[in-house]
Amino acid sequence: MVTREKLNVAVIGVSGRGMGLLSLLCNMDDVRVTVVSDLYDDRMQMAAEQAMKEAGYRPLSIRDYREVVQRDDVDCVITPSSWSSHIRIAIASMKAGKPVAIEVGGAYSIRECWDLVNTYEETGVDCMMLENCCYGRKEMAVLNMVKKGVFGEIIHCQGGYQHDLREEISMGLENRHYRFSNYLNRNGELYPTHEVGPIAKYLNINRGNRFLMLTSMASKARGLHEWIVKNKGADHEHAKLHFTQGDIVTTMIKCAHGETVLLIHDTSLPRVYSRGGRVQGTRGIWMEDKNAVHIDGISPPEDFSNLEASWEPFEKYLEQYEHPLWKEYLREGVKAGHGGMDYLVLRAFLESVKYNRPTPIDVYDTATWMAITCLSEDSIAMGSMPVPFPDFTCGKWINREEEVPSKYMLSKIPEF
Ligand SMILES: NC(=O)c1ccc[n+]([C@@H]2O[C@H](COP(=O)([O-])OP(=O)(O)OC[C@H]3O[C@@H](n4cnc5c(N)ncnc54)[C@H](O)[C@@H]3O)[C@@H](O)[C@H]2O)c1
Which CATH architecture has domain 7-130? Predict the structure, then answer.
């Protein structure tokens, strides 16, 4: 049942990411961006101008998010703000009765994750992390393969945020970007959700399975210093800084049903972008970096004289296991934004609000994925000690009610 014809949306945080999402929103027939908000006036101004150009109207510019979430002309809130403000804004929004979508990022404390979950349970208002990689074409085909049992019983998954961000981080003070101070003060798995989001859905986390504990290890930190010396000069004041964030942070998570998950955070050394996905089960394996699959009894058997010949191209499986949402999307025309997934994750949120159904990534998923960051900081601080994972569902994961079906659902493969 359609409950709202047109959604009035507030966008809080309109820097690089916010402007990208704003552009997608401005081109949706059933959305009107009524408010843009940021701590910086020039950014609000630019966002309002962009909406004018793309949608033909000018949203209000309001700096204080507490005022934004109270407004009658705001039905729901999307917040691509900085990592440290997501949860605060989400809580204010839920308390005001407005469903909220937060951009990706990790948490600073377990307490704020509980605050998020508790606010949802008190208000019944949805909070969704906009984890676009859950809607990536590849990830959705792999989800379909996992749910169809192609890999057998899943034993191990891995992935990483492996992205050379040396310039973005090192220029953070000049560009008013939040990563700089995080790398200067923290040491942990700072950005786990692009890989752990899809993996959590492969492993039914919070719906029949859960993360039990994790352990993290950080390498030394050299990449940013070297970049700064080379590009800003050895005498630059930033060359004297000591970055605490290890160049490579490796995290292992154990699940209640025995699966292991390996996450790699790798953003301050030269490299080529990859999320390094891998899913391995009793019948086969997918390796994103090889763009290949090997399935027992289907792929050519292992031959040591020509190992490459035992791998099959992922494209073969993509053709067979294309997710129905992507089949429809390809027919209708893929929209810009990280290969199309940005549009899908926004629609997953907006249509949940519009049709009044729970979001496919819920508050328990959001809190669980965000918690990895502060848990990994604790583990590293204690010499890679294992740390227990909170059960944000308080036991509901064991007999969780079925997800309300929709074409965006992630716990099952929808039929439409
Ligand atoms: N899903 C993706 O593919 C993807 C890609 C890029 C960035 N992101 C995420 O999007 C978010 C924003 O990234 P960015 O690169 O644009 O960061 P940014 O630091 O450039 O922008 C964040 C903006 O939020 C504003 N802000 C912070 N607190 C606020 C508050 N209380 N009220 C109003 N505005 C506030 C800041 O002033 C800033 O303009 C981050 O969480 C980032 O991890 C996601």
Answer: 3-Layer(aba) Sandwich (3.40)
